[in-house]
Design goal:
The complex is a heterodimer of chains A (313) and B (68).
Chain A: E1 11-14, E2 23-28, E3 31-35, H1 43-54, E4 58-63, H2 69-72, H3 75-82, E5 85-89, H4 93-97, E6 120-122, E7 127-130, E8 133-139, E9 148-152, E10 157-161, H5 173-177, H6 182-194, E11 200-203, H7 212-228, H8 230-249, E12 251-253, H9 257-263, H10 265-275, H11 279-292, E13 296-299, E14 302-305
Chain B: H1 27-31, H2 38-54
Classes of the chains: A alpha/beta (313), B mainly alpha (68).
């Protein structure tokens, strides 16, 4: 099958990988709006992609779906390159203004970011025009409690961020860290977006897709599995987060892994709250999982990232 | 199933070749990927395979099944 989804000519999706979220560029005549900017270490490529697609038009505004490093990492670079304003979901404005690296989950998962200032905010139910389409901001808490999705009712397009992927959704950090009811919020979010008429989803990661109902079914199944078994959720979070880290750093000393797992808040909390393993046992299990999935392999004293499409669910 | 992107999350453009150091696509090929037809995606993947060969790199494991 496969006819690529046909989006209006005013809407361009740059499908990135997993370390960088997808970027969406929307044109209104000579002006453009960008949604999400990828991870910090990929920012030069993000700027190059945007510059190529702009082809002389002007990037006026950058909008984020949520506060995580793989969505906001290129914000500062993109603003420097194009002089655009930055609009963020209202719920994350304060953590950005204070550049609270804990709240932004940078320290929590040993990720990097570059500070930027927001010029404007979007609240749930706010509307804006981009790409000659009117978008409604929808609250989609769960993966990120302040996240927004953007919905165009006319063309039935949903920009879902990490609230819904073709196969799953982003880590439910609040449950893993014990800071909130991510499972309950994710369920309410899936139920709410499940009531929308949607022909095309542009997710934060992976190719845009049209099988919305099947994706919802898979997401609900995954959510049920997590509701039934917190340890499974914790293991998935640890695997996904370490996969992300390895994509960033490419290698890590095997010897250093137990201490890394014991000191990095996400792994420490996930283990303490759901697994109760010793750091060494957790490290051995994790290395085995990453090798089995083809995400990483041992090379001498190091754990090294492989090419395989990683499991970031 | 649609044709998988060759992105391997090493997203830097090489100043020497003008290709991404991870997936060996040029900027135009990355920019247009989501809008490209299956035929165009296969053509890009063939070019990627040729460029990796030229650079002495192993084929990208996860796109072997893409029919190239």
């Amino acid at each position: 099958m496969s006819a690529a989804l046909r989006f209006p000519a005013s809407l361009h999706v740059f499908e990135r990988g997993w370390l960088s979220a997808n970027n969406i560029l929307l044109f209104d005549g000579n002006d453009a709006t960008l949604i999400d900017t990828g991870y910090l270490t990929h920012a030069d490529q993000t700027v190059a992609l945007v510059r190529t697609a702009l082809d002389g038009r002007r990037l006026r505004r950058l909008i984020n779906t949520h506060s995580h490093s793989d969505h906001i990492g290129g914000n500062a670079s993109v603003q420097r390159a194009f002089g655009c304003t930055i609009t963020v979901p209202a719920g994350m404005a304060d953590m950005v203004a204070r550049w609270d690296e804990d709240a932004l989950l940078l320290t929590t998962a040993r990720q990097v970011g570059e500070r930027f200032s927001a010029d404007a905010v979007l609240d749930p139910d706010d509307r804006f025009v981009a790409g000659e389409l009117e978008w409604q901001a929808l609250a989609v808490p769960g993966h990120d409690m302040d996240a927004l999705a953007y919905y165009n009712a006319e063309r039935r397009i949903l920009i879902s961020g990490d609230a819904l992927w073709r196969d799953g959704f982003g880590i439910l950090f609040a449950d893993v860290l014990g800071t909130g009811d991510g499972l309950g919020e994710a369920r309410r979010t899936l139920e709410a977006i499940g009531r929308l008429a949607v022909d095309a989803v542009i997710p934060g990661h992976g190719a845009p897709f049209s099988d919305f109902d099947d994706a919802l079914e898979r997401a609900f199944a995954r959510l049920r599995a997590f509701e039934d078994d917190g340890a499974r959720m914790a293991r998935n979070a640890i695997r996904a987060c370490m996969t992300f880290s390895l994509m960033d750093t490419r290698r890590m000393a095997l010897d250093a892994l137990p201490q890394h797992l014991a000191e990095t808040p996400l792994y420490r909390e996930a283990n303490a709250r759901f697994l109760g393993m010793s750091p060494d046992a957790l490290a051995s299990w994790l290395i085995g999982e990453l090798e089995r999935a083809g995400v990483a392999g041992r090379e001498g004293p190091d754990l090294v990232a492989r090419q395989a499409v990683p499991m970031l669910r | 199933m649609s044709i998988a992107s060759p992105c391997i999350n090493i997203c830097h453009m090489s100043p020497d070749t003008g290709w991404c150091e991870g997936c060996q696509r040029n900027i135009d090929e990355i920019t247009c990927w989501s809008r490209a037809s299956d035929a165009d995606k296969r053509r890009i993947l063939v070019a990627v395979a040729d460029r990796r060969d030229l650079l002495g790199l192993a084929p990208l494991a996860h796109i072997e099944g893409a029919g190239v």
